[in-house]
């Protein structure tokens, strides 16, 4: 069947997370996959993502998946063809971003074509790989850019040990596969200390819809109890982080004006591991102060009888109004750490990758 580049496929994107197995099985997919490839998320979750890859590109994609994990890459793009559920639509040229996040690969899949938007996306990526032979013009990247998020050491106690290394061999001594064809391997070990968050793109609070692990944000299960992303940003950095997110949102709009993908933004800020809201709710009364206008109560004040009438003129109505207490958040924000971040916008979410700053 002939490849179909654009036959009514929306210029949208979806976020996907796959495991480290050689099949790269889907662990999580956002709903826009149905707009781009015709599948519902539940039809793909748990199945190999490589099933959707064009047969001519399968061997190279498998090797690329392996190398991405072993080299602990971040903010990389690859252009390849993926199968649409509707056989009449054939294979769709897609741009796939990928970043290794501890024990999963996190990224997005978007419709790709030769356009200014694709040029912009490429200009913000760390690495570009074009597997589809018909589109060499997509091979573009900035000259001599350093890696925005290089690998960082991870405690040995947190590394996963694959079956093939249990006899004493180390990851560094494991040989590279000699051939792309027939590449086979056990799941690879955990990599850098990174956490991925998927934020609600359409909420001013950027509610956390998904959290990949508890390595950096440790307060509670954000997947079960959605909280604002900004709750975990130090107050002094909140305005800047909001500006960055609004910026990548403006990048993440396709030629039709629809929310889509828009390249990578790199920045750093101070992260609060437990969040300000959590600390406020559990703060002791001594750290919550009331405003000067709050009424004071004392058990030593005389109690006026219910029907007692005083001939002393009371205060004016304006001064009688009781002022609402002013609640001030705790001054101490709790444990904090400086993090590097990758921000990227997609059709149904904002993807944020975090790691401790070196």
TrEMBL record:
PAS domain sequence ranges: 27-72
CDD domains registered for this protein in UniProt: PAS
Region (Disordered): 142-188, 288-325
Pfam families given in the database record: PAS_3 (PF08447)
Highest rank taxon of the organism: Eukaryota
InterPro entries assigned: PAS, PAS-like_dom_sf, PAS_fold_3
Ranges in a coiled coil: none
Name listed for the protein in its UniProt record: PAS domain-containing protein
């Amino acid at each position: 069947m002939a490849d179909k580049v654009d036959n009514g496929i929306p210029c949208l994107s979806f976020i996907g997370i796959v495991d480290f197995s050689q099949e790269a099985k889907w662990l999580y997919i956002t709903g826009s996959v149905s707009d781009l490839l015709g599948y519902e998320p539940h039809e793909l979750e748990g199945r190999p993502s490589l099933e959707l890859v064009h047969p001519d590109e399968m061997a190279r994609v498998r090797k690329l998946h392996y190398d991405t994990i072993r080299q602990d890459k971040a903010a990389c793009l690859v252009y390849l063809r993926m199968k649409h559920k509707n056989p009449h639509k054939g294979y769709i040229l897609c741009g796939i971003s990928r970043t290794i996040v501890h024990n999963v690969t996190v990224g997005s899949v978007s419709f790709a074509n030769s356009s200014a938007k694709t040029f912009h996306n490429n200009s913000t990526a760390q690495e570009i790989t074009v597997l589809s032979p018909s589109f060499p013009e997509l091979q573009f990247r900035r000259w001599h850019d350093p890696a925005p998020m290089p690998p960082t050491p991870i405690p040995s106690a947190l590394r996963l040990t694959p079956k093939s290394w249990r006899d004493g061999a180390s990851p560094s001594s494991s040989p590279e596969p000699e051939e792309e064809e027939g590449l086979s391997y056990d799941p690879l070990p955990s990599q850098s200390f990174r956490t991925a968050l998927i934020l609600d793109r359409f909420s001013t609070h950027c509610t956390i819809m998904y959290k990949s692990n508890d390595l950096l944000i440790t307060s509670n299960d954000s997947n079960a109890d959605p909280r604002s992303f900004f709750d975990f940003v130090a107050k002094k950095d909140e305005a800047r982080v909001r500006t960055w997110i609004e910026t990548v949102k403006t990048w993440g709009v396709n030629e039709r004006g629809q929310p889509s993908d828009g390249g990578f933004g790199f920045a750093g800020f101070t992260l609060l591991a437990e969040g300000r809201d959590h600390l406020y709710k559990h703060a002791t009364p001594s750290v919550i102060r009331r405003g000067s206008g709050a009424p004071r109560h004392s058990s030593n004040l005389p109690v006026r009888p219910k029907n007692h009438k005083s001939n002393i003129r009371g205060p004016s109505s304006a001064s009688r109004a009781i002022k609402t207490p002013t609640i001030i958040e705790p001054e101490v924000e709790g444990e904090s750490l400086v993090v590097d971040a990758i921000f990227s916008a997609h059709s149904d979410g904002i993807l944020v990758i975090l790691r401790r700053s070196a």
